[in-house]
Amino acid sequence: MTLHHNEVLVDEELVRSLLEAQCPQWADLPLSFAGAGTDNSMYRLGGDLLVRIPRTADTARSVRKEQEWLPRLAPHLACLVPEPVHAGTPTNAFPLVWSVYRWIDGDVAGLDTVRDWAAFGADLAAIVRELHDIDLMGATREGDLSWYRGGSLQACDQWISACLDDCRTMVGSELDVEALEKLWRAALGLPEAPGPHVWLHGDLKPTNLLVREGRVQAVIDFGCLSVGVPDAEHSTIWDLPREARQVYWDTLGLDDLTWARARAWAIAVGVSGISYYWSTYPAFVAECQGRLQAILTDAAAR
């Protein structure tokens, strides 16, 4: 499934050739496709390793970011995070960097793997607090660490307004786009978040949270890692049941202005996802629609 116009196509044969050239010690291990997201494709290697291959040159920059920063962040986090064990280099067959990680066992967070959503919300809040408390170690909001979700809502207004227009055409009456735009515009008028910049995972949606016996045990996919203001970090809680969302909010002690700005970021991510992936990735579009509907339901109840 091709998602991007500049995507570099990858298959098992290519991955095997990369391993033979750069990791001969693993080249004979069993290799199987393990899934793909919007930015990377994954292949399980043997029982203990995972090959992560970027789809485009843009996402290859995220691979380098993970290789540099995950080993430095991991000692400060109680949860498991991906451990890079090989930094792959470009070849004639594949012109981008790539990675091999330790495999992390666990189930993706979901209705069939989590029973106690209040406990889940508390777990996630603890992880976010821990990540945001890590010293920046000299990192600043520039270059690959300046992803848009750690910046200002106002800077995204023109882009998100166009995506809202796309949603009116694409989704029609399935979503109240007018109500979503009102929430977005209201947030644009709020003061920007106070406080210092922090480390941001950037995409703490359920598919990036692995659980064991219903409790969060690992956070994966740090491709959106950045430095910035924390509001956007909270946007993915609208992907969770309301019970988890409320406990998360209470545990972190977040205020109403933070709630409104985080909700606006959730709207931005949802409508831009629908706009960009409408004809290529229906499962992701459905995920975005579910997030936006949760926002509307939540707003109507408040």
From TrEMBL:
Domain Aminoglycoside phosphotransferase: 33-265
Top-rank lineage group of the source organism: Bacteria
Pfam families: APH
PANTHER family, sorted: AMINOGLYCOSIDE PHOSPHOTRANSFERASE-RELATED-RELATED, BIFUNCTIONAL AAC_APH
Protein name: Aminoglycoside phosphotransferase family protein
High-level lineage: Bacteria, Bacillati, Actinomycetota, Actinomycetes, Kitasatosporales
